[in-house]
Design a protein that fits this description.
alpha+beta, 5-stranded antiparallel beta sheet, 19 helices, elongated, disordered C terminus
């Protein structure tokens, strides 16, 4: 396939993944073919902590990805130079570190060589404060023409990946998408706020908007960041966001009680990390989901029954949804409920399908689908030019 044709295909894959037609793994699998024994990854590196992760990848085993996150990201000798290169500039491994120097490193001896890797090309797609988000292809040693072709290809697709980052950081719909199908939160009266690492609000549901508008317990500070009436709860959120940025934790990060004026029961505030393996999470960056629950509202029988009836959820599915709201991971839910992880995954798929497909009436869904079918190809072609 000619280089221009391959670039066009990959750019089309980017926009197909963005709108959910394909998974990002399809894009990465195709990128990986640019080098022999190729492995491709969308990954990040935090300069303050010196750590990173192969957030999305094709070709690495789960153990290899875990080893990179836990240790080898700290000794990756390419990252010093990678942190200084401009966004969009694709480079070869030798431009980041001379090959004789690479061959003397622990990273080469204990990570690259055991996986049959000897070279790489990479491009920085996005920078956020001291964190770099990159696309890289690693592969076996190859001739200069092959490596240069792969490098040029990354340079061509980088601007389109940068648009994906911009979309997820600016679009309210992207925040809603992160919630999968858990719009059941609305019916239970539980507030959900998606906050970035600097505590700025990226998305919130109607219940959370009501709490912020009412002021008092939940609101914004002078710089537009989320704050609580209790400095202790605000500080707990900052600590939770810090652990996310450093990659030190996942799942439920903390639970706090937020006292209110009068005789009203305190609000229960939970800080939950989004699934770090999600593509949306990679493009969104460090973020936490803040769940704010008024027990007097969310625990009422009428609220629970309305949530179950509105989406046609079974009792077991509603129980799983509640566990997720409490911050449990699917594996933890399986352990608590005494069922297999496969059962929980099946229930999650059913929850997401029901809460998504019942969000609009059937005629409205058909209208949206027909409009998408008419407009999407032209839109993607225009974007890829």
């Amino acid at each position: 396939m000619a280089e221009t044709d391959r670039a066009a295909v990959l750019i089309d894959r980017i926009y197909a993944a963005l709108v959910g037609e394909i998974g990002w793994d399809v894009f990465l699998q195709e990128v990986a073919t640019c080098l022999p024994n190729g492995k491709a990854t969308l990954f990040f590196h935090d300069l303050d902590s010196g750590t990173g992760a192969l957030s999305l990848n094709a070709g690495f085993s789960a153990d290899a990805a875990a080893a990179y996150s836990s240790h080898f990201s700290r000794v990756n000798p390419w990252m010093r130079a990678a942190s200084q290169r401009p966004v969009g500039l694709a480079v070869r491994a030798e431009q980041m570190l001379p090959r004789p120097d690479l061959l003397r490193t622990e990273f080469y001896a204990d990570y690259l060589q055991p996986h049959g890797l000897g070279t790489a090309v990479g491009v920085t797609v996005y920078k956020e404060e001291r964190c770099n988000f990159m696309l890289s292809i690693l592969g076996a040693e190859a001739d200069d023409a092959t490596i240069d072709s792969a490098r040029a290809l990354l340079g061509q697709v980088a601007p389109h990946l940068r648009r994906v980052f911009s979309f997820y950081r600016r679009s309210p719909q992207a925040g809603a998408t992160l919630q999968g199908g858990l719009s059941v939160l609305d019916l239970l009266g539980i507030g959900m706020i998606l906050v970035s690492a600097d505590r700025r609000v990226r998305h919130c549901n109607p219940a959370a908007e009501g709490l912020i508008t009412a002021g008092g317990a939940v609101g914004h500070d002078g710089e537009g960041r989320l704050r609580f009436s209790s400095p202790e709860v605000t500080g707990a959120l900052d600590r939770a966001l810090g652990t996310i940025r450093l990659g030190l934790s996942r799942g439920l990060l903390d639970t706090q009680l937020l006292r209110r004026d009068g005789d009203r029961a305190p609000l229960r505030v939970r800080f939950v990390q989004l699934d770090p393996s999600s593509a949306q999470v990679f493009f969104t960056g460090a973020a936490a989901m803040v769940l704010i629950e008024d027990p007097a509202v969310s625990s009422t029988a009428a609220r629970i029954e309305s949530a179950r009836a509105a989406y046609g959820l079974t009792a077991a599915e509603l129980r799983v949804a509640r566990r997720l709201i409490e911050g449990l991971t699917p594996t933890e839910i399986a352990a608590v409920d005494g069922v297999s992880p496969l059962t929980v995954r099946s229930q999650l798929k059913s929850i997401f399908a029901k809460t998504d497909t019942r969000r609009h009436s059937a005629p409205e869904r058909r209208r949206r689908q027909s409009g998408s079918a008419r407009n999407r190809p032209a839109g993607r072609r225009a974007a890829s030019r």
